[in-house]
Amino acid sequence: MCELLGLSFNQPVEMDISFSILRARSRRNLDGWGMAWFGEDALLRLIKEPVPAHESELARKLLYRSTIKSNIFISHIRMASSGGVNYLNTHPFYRQVNRQIWVLAHNGTVNGLDDSRNSGFVPIGGTDSELLFCHLLSWIQGQTTTSGRQFNESLAAKLRELNVYGSTNLLFTNGKRLYAYRDANGYNGLCCLKRQAPFPTTRLRDTEIEARLGDIKDPSEEGWIVATRPLTDEPWAAMKPGELMVFSAGKRVFRSTTFATHDRSAEEIALLRALRKSPHKLSLRQLEMELKQTSDKILVTLNFLFKKGLIRQEKRDGVPADHPDATFYTVAACEREIDELIRL
Q1: What phi-psi label fits residue 178: left (phi over 0), alpha (psi between -120 and 50 degrees) or beta?
Q2: Lowest-pLDDT range, 230-244, 275-289, 326-340?
Q3: N or C, fewer C-beta in 10 Å, the chain?
Q4: What long-range pairs does 336-342 form, CB within 8 A, spacing at least 24?
Q5: Rounded CA gap, 61 and 63, in Å?
Q6: What is the per-residue pLDDT for 33?
Q7: Cβ distance 164 to 268 under 8 Å?
Q8: DSSP for residue 300
Q9: Does the pLDDT value for residue 117 go beyond 70?
Q10: DSSP H helical segments within 167-283, as ranges?
């Protein structure tokens, strides 16, 4: 399996400790490695190779001889599941959209994405990950802003929509914010750690090294680390399936409300139960009869669940969502989560 690593801090930091652990894990991920960061001039730096990180002289020099510092890093070690082992297929990927540089690394496998609906974003290599990135970029291009709670909520819903096509753990950034999304079906994993003073002494996983962080860290340093698996013996927290977190300048500025953490109403549970029990899509008219509620009340519930990425309207309806013949269904990537919650 591929592994992801991301950092967001309040000041430029070195990535050597975290990357040393990721590099050690490359013995199980032999098909390439990469690292992206933004300099003090806000320009992207990207290094990647289609070779194992633990065998790479460049990775070794980056680890032991470099003094690279940044507020944001993204790194990836690859086990190829789609596309050949070459530079173009090595993560992270980057593109410019709306005068911003976006960088993305993906863990998982997706299938069935249409490569003809990307508004000019075409994969350069041959991976499903880059095609997924193109779809995300196309959506970002259509947004009026890329900051704020409304954008983040819409982004979380879009990621759940893309998640329908397969396993999707993501780290991506525009140089200002670090975005972390965990697969809605719980594939592999993503976890996070807030690191701040007082810094502990901790053992580095997959090594025999014990690090006295207090001796090497600036007391004013504060930030978050996101990884596929815990890197140290510190208290890492697993992200919830389908959860999006956003970090900026070392602070977590957004955490999406998954359906599991939302204070669910009886109306939401009843509507989801009706959709899951039905062998086919249900129309608004049928939902009125099933739930014995007015269409206006049902539409309020539908709108909430739609924003959370849990349901969709059938694209072939040809009518608006408030039409009696509009039909709805639950998103496949969320069905296991929904089933556990409504206890079918």
Answers
A1: beta
A2: 326-340
A3: C
A4: 336/185, 337/184, 337/241, 337/242, 337/258, 337/259, 337/260, 338/259, 338/272, 338/276, 338/310, 339/276, 341/259, 341/260, 341/264, 341/269, 341/272, 342/269, 342/272, 342/273, 342/276
A5: 5
A6: 98
A7: no
A8: H
A9: no
A10: 213-216, 266-277
Average pLDDT, rounded, for the chain: 91
Predicted TM-score of the model (pTM): 0.79
Q: Look up the CATH number of domain 266-342.
A: 1.10.10.10
Q: What is the pLDDT of residues 268-323, one digit of tens each?
A: 889 999 999 999 999 999 999 999 999 888 998 898 888 778 899 999 999 999 99
**b/e string for 45-71 if b means 16 or more Cβ within 10 A?**
eebbbbbbbbebeebeebbeeeebebb
pLDDT at 260 over 60: no
- State the DSSP string of 208-233: S-EEEHHHHS-TT-EEEEEESS--BS
CA nearest neighbour of 192 among 227, 221, 222, 168: 227
pLDDT tens digits, 200-224: 999 999 888 899 999 999 999 999 9
Q: At which residue do the structure tokens 């977190």 appear?
A: 245
Q: Where are the domains of the chain?
A: 3-255, 266-342
Q: Which amino acids are annotated catalytic?
A: 2
Domain 3-255 in CATH 3.40.50.150: no
- Locate 225 and state its tokens: 């680390």
What gap in Å lies between CA 53 and CA 262, rounded to an integer?
41
Query: 315: which 2 tokens?
Result: 């694209």
Angle at which helix 128-141 crosses helix 149-163, to 10 degrees, equals 150
Residue 203: Cβ within 10 Å count: 12
Q: Which amino acid is at 225?
A: I
Q: Which of 98, 106, 211 is nearest to 144 (CA)?
A: 98
